[in-house]
Write a structure and sequence with these properties.
With 366 residues, the protein is an alpha+beta fold. It has two domains: 119 residues, Alpha-Beta Plaits; 226 residues, no CATH class. Helix 1 runs antiparallel to helix 2. Strands 5, 6, 7, 8, 9, 10, 13, 14 and 15 form a nine-stranded mixed sheet that branches. Strands 2-3-1-4 form a four-stranded antiparallel sheet, with helices on one face. Strands 11-12 form a two-stranded antiparallel sheet. It has nine helices and 15 strands.
């Protein structure tokens, strides 16, 4: 065991209530009981159970490092226990994200989303955990760029000597399973070429250039690629450390005042605006959306999670919510037409192969 703290957020959709809009309180209660036991047995230092839409989010701190079997198994067993309740209540899509029968040492590749960071806790350690529903991991690319590379968003990049050298972005090519490190500000045009294509190139980690300090980590699992077929959008999480030579809480939240366009929404097959909401409004029900994001702020104290503060519960984000509703109306008017509907290759439900086969004999040379 190292002296460092590990912050692990492991999440899964193990059953929706009603449909895909929310989670039944009994699932939250079950998860709470499981993690409370683990906390008593000192597997965890602390935990917090949260949810965004139909996603159950296990926020855990411990000293076992990343990819720890004990911690991953605890999360897996918790999801299995919640699945049992979901089945008893016939909740919707019970066990949806648990793609395998038995646990094999890590939840990675088994369906749940994972974001973990290990670090030396600073004198004061404010962290923000962003959790989204009805969207995919590429949704973090734009805000992460603004937070760590755009001085019009983050004045600290200009003003604070600790940040002035910039940040490095680790980008994963989720199709080729390769990664690359690119530095801002000197490589921003290269960087943007990749991360603007957020379906394929996803920012996983951001490091401060001056000393390599880890500043942010995102979950990069793509369920559809894991399963080889549609099994739901990935509903990603993002962890960001703030202040004292890293972007301030307000700089980290600022990009979300613009409701940017993401993939997801109904049937994981549409473009829609990402709406920043307080915890109690994270219930996507209009056309199963629009996609939502919540921000839970914590102060860490020897690994204890002091919080959360519901950071989008602020009228300063009202206009972003209004903007998201206006964009939603505009996009919804397109019905099944692109670009509201995703392009053929990107839709996660599609009747096209079936239709092509059925109508193949009626296709004649033009
Ligand atoms: C999107 C999502 C929902 C479902 C939709 C249809 O991520 O989970 O929009 O895709 O409600 O669900 P099924 O096919 O299960 O009826
Ligand atoms: Mg669901
Ligand atoms: Mg979900």
């Amino acid at each position: 065991m190292s002296g460092k703290i590990t912050l692990s957020v492991i999440k899964a959709d193990v059953g929706g209530y009603v449909g895909h809009s929310c989670i039944h309180p009994d699932l939250l209660k079950t998860a709470e009981e499981r993690l409370s036991n683990a906390s008593e047995k000192e597997v965890l230092i602390d935990y917090h159970v949260s949810r965004c839409g139909d996603d159950l989010e296990l926020i855990m701190t411990h000293k076992h490092g990343m990819d720890n079997e004990k911690v991953h198994k605890l999360a897996w067993d918790t999801f299995v226990a919640c699945t049992e309740i979901a089945k008893e209540l016939k909740l919707y899509g019970a066990g949806q994200d648990l793609l395998q029968e038995t646990f094999t040492g890590t939840v990675k590749g088994m369906g749940p989303g994972v974001a973990e960071m290990e670090f030396e806790e600073r004198k004061s350690e404010p962290v923000i955990i962003f959790m989204a529903d009805k969207t995919s991991p590429g949704a973090w690319n734009l805000p992460l760029y603004k937070i760590f590379a755009d001085p019009f968003n983050t004045s600290g990049l200009v003003i604070d000597p600790a940040m002035h050298e910039g940040f490095k972005f680790e980008i994963v090519d989720v199709y080729e399973r390769k990664k690359i490190l690119l530095a801002a500000p000197e490589e921003i045009y290269d960087l943007l070429m990749f991360i603007g294509a957020m379906r394929r190139f996803i920012i996983r980690n951001v490091y401060r250039k001056k000393d390599g300090e880890l500043a942010a980590t995102a979950s990069t699992q793509k369920l559809s690629l894991i399963a080889g077929r549609y099994v739901g959008k990935d509903d990603p999480v993002l962890l960001v450390r703030c202040q004292s030579g890293l972007p301030a809480v307000g700089e980290v939240l600022e990009p979300f005042a613009f409701s940017h366009m993401v993939e997801g929404w109904m049937r994981g097959s549409h473009h829609g605006p990402l709406m920043p909401v307080p915890f109690y409004e994270a219930n996507p029900s209009r056309f199963d959306g629009p996609p939502r994001v919540i921000a839970a702020g914590f102060q860490l104290c020897g690994g204890k999670l002091i919080g959360p503060r519901d950071l989008f519960d602020d009228p300063a984000f009202d206009l972003a919510r209004k903007q998201a509703n206006e964009i939603s109306n505009y996009l919804r008017s397109h019905g099944p037409f692109e670009p509201h509907r995703l392009g053929l290759d990107d839709m996660e439900y599609t009747t096209m192969p079936h239709l092509m086969e059925k109508l193949s004999s009626r296709f004649v040379p033009e």
